[in-house]
Specification:
heterodimer, A: 234 residues, alpha/beta, Rossmann fold, four-stranded antiparallel sheet, B: six-stranded mixed beta barrel, 22 strands, 57% helix, 17% strand
């Protein structure tokens, strides 16, 4: 069952003083099934991060549409889009993006706090998410007291705390050493295979991409290949 | 490189320049406005009491030989030395006889120097010539060329009116007398040629009386003394005293506010680029090179901002100064007075403060570990007890209290209270990092539950950077301290003066003789006795109070002796200190006297003392019953009943009659009292006229100070707006992240506004304590000058206006930055350094 569809997605940016238009994404179609682990790969500048941002409603496409759980994100206003990001999408960033002034528990609880959930409910859900990534013992620490790997596991917990329809990860191992990278990828695999979570991950690391069920390769803003694990190019 | 950085982030550079411009503009506008106030005050004082003067008189009273008077004209600050000779006389105009004090003066010289203005004719220079004050001439029906008979010591002189003088131009030497004769002529007519009653030394406008007094005293022989004239209406000066202290304080506070605004802007500007500086160091730049770059940038931004601010300040000062002049009813058409030092000092201050403010964060940024500096987000400061602020608060408070103790014990002059007050203010600002967390959490409870999310995050943002938050709040603390402190001090002081005035002058009509004060110290007095009898015989009178006034000397110090009818059953027209009104009344009825607090402080007399008092050349020992709060002649006054004055000093006549009609019938007395006034060449004024005159002074002073305080609030709001804008710019990554994880634009807007409201309310609360303490400081500083403590009060209206203003300006100031925060591009914000 498809949970996310991208239909003829394009994104162009104006650059420089002469307003030259550059197509970062030039017409992309694909869909993601529930419980699928999709890796989007490509060289720097291939448009993979821009595509992910469009899928997550962080930036709006120039044309085409993104449909998440039968909701066309293009039809939503800013506030409705924020609600979708808050409740149905979990983000994982390369640079973790934890708020330095909050403890790990508070960071993880943030989407629920924004949603106006009660303190006890936020706390319980955040602890559960932290336990799931093996970080419960570090819940009281602030980000600057954690290693990169620990911060990223915290960021994963934050992405999961709302039990989203889909987790979007932008280079989640980009700032980590190989051991921590492996741990993070294992976590994502556990999510997909253990909890039937849907994950779309942008990466330029072949080892990380290899852990996914399916790999979409991008080149010059277009899908170059779309490969299921153990299958040929589609 | 700097230019490229500015081009890349023009908003940050512009916000920094704006901060400096606001700060320097505030200093320039306040400085120029304060000068306008002082000029207005001086004009007002001159209008009331003429020029600032110092008197030289014989020690022990009486006249002295003019030959003994040394040359004083070359003393710095002295404009002219005016010998004076007074002579009570009788004028005969047709069939009318009028008693007056004739004033002998070098009329020709005074006119040439512009110290006396004639509305018609010329000055008197020889025998048979007299100049009359114009209203006196009018009441006597005299004009230029008319003749009067002048009776003086067994001699009658026929004199011609050759000039008419403007009242305001002669009151400084003639008091309320209106007959002016050449001093040689009057001396010879009195057979006292070469004798002087006193020499009045006229000072230049900018000279301080105390300095001139000191210099003059050094020149005088033992037989002469120099003193501030006591027979003059120095009430205005007393009203203005605390206002002047207030102006000093406001100027100091504006400089402090400017420092906070610039300091905060620089702190944010530099801290925000910590990663860039670390990168430069990584590439081989030394810490010193980075700091030099930062300080150079601060100097350039500071210079641009300071020049802009100076222009803005001058533009703002124009209407404010004009408003102050209007409030003080100063002559219109005066050009904006800008002292030569204002612009260079303000610009230099802006640049230096910018450089100094940039140095510290630059030092911090270059001291940080390279790898830590390169981290994408700076580590938040450690939380815990802010010991260094606690120590700072303790030290600053100790310094301020010590300073105030030295002012109170008169080791330091009253003006030293200003730096003391500033130190205390800094102590209050330094409490901000300590008090802000609990206050912010407490205030957060008051915000409706439906904004819980925004409130929680706003509180987190406030607690994130305690030093920076303290600087932002510091601007508000200063503005609110300013408003509440000065608001209380000014109004308490004004109430004190008005309370005294209401006690002293409760009547419907005031009847005075043209020569109210017996300046020559003559026992002959003034013939209002018959007028008093006539008034008392009038129908429809509720109460007549006679007041006799004479200059005297107590324990060698000049004073004014006030003898007054004190009717049993009527409220005592004096406010005793340290004893009850009934006790004082009983003592006064026994023939004892009450001394003004300033006189007591100056002479060291205490209740119960028996002291010699000289009036009309007669010295009598009197017992001091107690002290009273009084502003007559600046508090150098001695009060007693008329019966006691008659017995002790032979003061028989009333110089001033206060007449009260039954309620609602005051107007009926206008005609009969006017007739009596005409017959006796006296002046009749309604109490409304007198009160309006006093109110004019008071309202002018209060209005001008409020104008400057208002300016402080405007500056505070601009400072807060700029700080919040920079705060938003700096936090755009955090804001972007919050938006990415689902915060709506509305939530972002509300969070920023709530954050500002909490800051405003917290700053207001801390400023409330600062303001009340500052008011006490100013009042305590006034005590040595006034000789009595001013009743301190708590004024909810002043507090409410200031707190509402603080919260409102922060809400308004935060609105645009909040909208901007909500409109930040999500992707750019997340990627921001």
């Amino acid at each position: 069952m498809s949970i996310l569809q991208a239909e003829q997605l394009t994104k162009t940016f104006e650059t420089g003083g002469d307003a030259t238009k550059v197509a970062a994404v030039g017409g992309v179609d694909f869909s993601v099934a529930k419980g699928e682990f999709v890796a989007i790969t490509g060289a720097s500048g291939s448009g993979k991060s821009t595509l992910l941002h469009m899928l997550g409603g962080i930036t709006r496409p120039s044309s085409g549409r993104v449909v998440l759980e039968d909701v066309d994100l293009a039809t939503l206003d800013d506030d409705a889009l924020a609600l979708i990001r808050r409740r149905r999408i979990g983000f994982i960033f390369q640079r973790y993006n934890l708020l330095p002034e909050l403890s790990l528990l508070e960071n993880v609880a943030l989407p629920l706090v924004l949603d106006g959930k009660g303190e006890a409910a936020c706390d319980a859900a955040a602890r559960k998410a932290l336990e799931a990534v093996g970080m419960a013992a570090r819940s009281g620490h602030r980000p600057d007291e954690l290693s990169g790997g620990e911060q990223q596991r915290g960021a994963i917990a934050r992405a999961l705390v709302t039990e989203p329809a889909i987790v979007l990860a932008d280079e989640p191992t980009g700032a980590l050493d190989s051991a921590n990278s492996a741990r993070v990828i294992e976590l994502l695999q556990e999510l997909v295979h253990g909890q039937h979570q849907t994950v779309v991950m942008v990466t330029h690391d072949p080892d990380s991409a290899a852990a996914a069920d399916r790999t979409i390769s991008m080149r010059d803003g277009l899908i170059f290949s779309d490969t299921a694990a153990g299958a040929g190019v589609s | 490189m700097l230019l490229r950085q500015w081009a890349r982030r023009p908003g940050r550079a512009a916000a920094t320049i704006a901060s400096v411009a606001v700060a320097v503009g505030a200093v320039v506008a306040t400085w120029v406005s304060a000068d306008a106030s002082r000029t207005g005050y001086r004009r007002l004082t001159e209008a009331v009491e003429g020029f600032p003067t110092v008197d030289v008189a014989a020690r022990g009273g009486g006249r002295f030989d003019a030959q003994k008077l040394p040359s004083l004209a070359d003393i710095p600050g002295v404009r002219a030395v005016v010998p004076l000779f007074y002579r009570p006389t009788l004028l005969r105009v047709g069939e009318r006889r009028v008693r007056e004090v004739a004033v002998g003066v070098a009329a020709q010289t005074l006119t040439e120097l512009g110290l006396m203005k004639l509305s018609a004719g010329r000055p008197c220079v020889s025998f048979e010539e007299v100049v009359l004050e114009e209203s006196l001439a009018e009441s006597l029906g005299l004009g230029l060329g008319d003749e009067i008979l002048f009776f003086a010591r067994r001699r009658i002189e026929r004199m011609t009116v050759v000039g008419l003088a403007e009242r305001s131009s002669i009151s400084w030497f003639a008091e309320t007398s209106g007959v002016i004769v050449d001093i040689r002529v009057l001396g010879e007519m009195s057979r006292s040629l070469g004798s002087l009653d006193r020499a009045r030394v006229v000072l230049k406008g900018e000279a301080t009386r105390q300095q001139a007094l000191k210099a003059i005293r050094k020149r005088l022989p033992e037989s002469l003394l120099a003193e501030i004239p006591v027979g003059r209406a120095s009430m205005a000066e007393d009203v203005l005293h605390s206002a002047d202290l207030g102006l000093d304080f406001v100027t100091g506070l504006t400089v402090a506010m400017a420092w906070f605004i610039v300091g905060n802007a620089m702190l944010m500007n530099v801290t925000e680029r910590r990663r860039g500086f670390s990168l430069m160091r990584l590439l081989g730049a030394t810490g010193r090179q980075v700091r030099r770059l930062v300080v150079l940038e601060a100097a350039l931004l500071g210079l641009v901002g300071a020049i802009l601010g100076a222009g803005i300040g001058l533009l703002a000062a124009g209407p404010i100064s004009a408003g102050i002049s209007r409030a003080l009813q100063a002559p219109p058409g005066e050009q904006l007075l800008v002292q030569p030092l204002v612009l260079p000092v303000s610009i230099a201050l802006g640049v230096l403060v910018a450089m100094a403010a940039a140095w510290w964060p630059a030092q911090e940024a270059t001291d940080v570990d390279l790898l830590e500096g390169l981290a994408s987000a700076p580590q938040p400061p450690a939380r815990g007890t802010p010991w260094k602020f606690i120590v700072a608060v303790g030290l600053l408070t100790l310094l301020a209290v010590l300073n105030q103790a030295l002012v109170l014990t008169e080791v330091f002059p009253p003006r030293a209270a200003v730096p003391g007050g500033m130190t205390l203010l800094l102590a209050f600002v330094a409490t901000t990092p300590i008090l802000l967390p609990p206050i912010a959490r407490l205030l957060a409870q008051l915000i409706p539950r439906r904004f819980r999310v925004e409130t929680t995050l706003a509180v987190e943002q406030i607690l994130r950077q305690p030093v920076r938050t303290a600087l932002t709040t510091g601007v508000l603390v200063v503005a609110v301290t300013n408003g509440i402190g000065l608001g209380h001090a000014i109004r308490d002081n004004v109430d004190d003066v008005l309370g005294w005035y209401s006690r002293m002058m409760r009547a419907d009509w005031v009847l005075t003789h043209a020569g109210m004060i017996s300046a020559a110290g003559s026992a002959e007095g003034l013939d209002s006795g018959s007028a008093e009898t006539e008034v008392r015989e009038l129908q429809g009178i509720d109460r007549v109070e006679g007041i006799g006034i004479a200059t005297g000397r107590l324990a060698g110090s000049a004073c004014v002796v006030v003898a007054r009818d004190m009717t049993p059953g009527d409220p005592l027209p004096l406010e005793p200190v340290g004893l009850s009104a009934d006790e004082l009344r009983a003592a006064l009825e026994r023939g004892e006297v009450a001394a003004g607090t300033v006189l007591a402080r100056r002479t060291g007399i205490k209740p119960g003392d028996e002291v010699p008092v000289e009036v009309f050349g007669r010295t009598t020992n009197v017992t001091v019953a107690g002290l009273v709060i009084d502003y007559t002649s600046g508090g150098s006054s001695l009060h007693l009943t008329r019966a006691a004055a008659r017995r002790l000093f032979g003061m028989n006549k009333a110089d001033l009659l206060l007449i009260t009609a039954p309620e609602g019938q005051a107007e009926r007395l206008r005609e009969p009292l006017g007739r009596i006034a005409d017959e006796h060449a006296m002046l009749l004024r309604s109490f409304g006229d007198v009160r309006a005159f006093v109110d004019r002074i008071v309202q002018g002073v209060v209005g001008s100070l409020w104008a400057i305080l208002g300016l402080g609030f405007v500056v505070g709001s601009l400072g807060v707006a700029n700080t919040v804008t920079m705060n938003v710019l700096e936090k755009r990554r955090t804001l972007g992240l919050l938006r990415a994880v689902g915060m709506t634009r509305g939530q972002v807007t509300r969070m920023v506004v709530i954050e500002s409201l909490l800051l405003g309310a917290a700053g207001g609360l801390i400023g409330l304590f600062g303001g009340v303490t500052t008011a006490l400081f100013i009042q305590l500083a006034s005590q040595p000058l006034l000789g009595h403590p001013i009743q301190a009060s708590f004024r909810p209206d002043v507090v409410a206006v200031n707190l509402i203003a603080a919260v409102a300006i922060t809400a308004i100031a935060a609105w645009l930055p909040a909208r901007r925060a909500a409109g930040l591009d999500l992707l750019e914000s997340i990627s921001a350094e």
